[in-house]
Known about the structure:
InterPro entries: HTH_MarR-typ, MarR/SlyA-like, Tscrpt_reg_MarR-type_CS, WH-like_DNA-bd_sf, WH_DNA-bd_sf. It is a single chain. By secondary structure, this protein is mostly helical. The protein has helices at 10-28, 39-45, 55-61, 66-78, 100-124, 126-141, and strands at residues 82-87, 90-98. The protein is built from 6 helices and 2 strands, in the order H-H-H-H-E-E-H-H. A two-stranded antiparallel ribbon has the order 1-2. Helix 5 crosses helix 6. It starts with 9 loop residues before the first helix and ends in a 5-residue tail after the last helix.
Amino acid sequence: MGMEKVEPMIGALLRYGWQRVMKTILSELPQEGFTDLQQAHVIVFLYPGPEGLSPGALAERHGMSKQAMNQLLHSLEQLGYLTRGVDPHNRRARIIQLTERGERVVAVARRKLVLLEQEWAAQLGEERFAALKQMLQELRRLPERL
């Protein structure tokens, strides 16, 4: 018995978009002098960014263990993209601050993603692309149910 061809579900379609976003960013970074970043590093910089968060809060946002996130942050700190300083509101806690180099990564990624969005809007039509973004915003605001 052969397998029926089925249409991809929403998760697969969203993954396609995510993969295009990551491929777009990762293809540009080396051209801008950021040859030391891997895909795992890039997630730290993505919207809304790590600025002012604790490593634990950032780990939770990305569904990672604190240990894995701290390893990633240590690597980025060694490469000069961020610092982990003392939280002025809680001297025992650490907060993440991007360095100028880290802020440049964000600027490069944002510039490339603006171009990608323009490409998608041209392919889908401005109105349809705007509607897609609006619907995704609505989904983002729905409460999570596990």
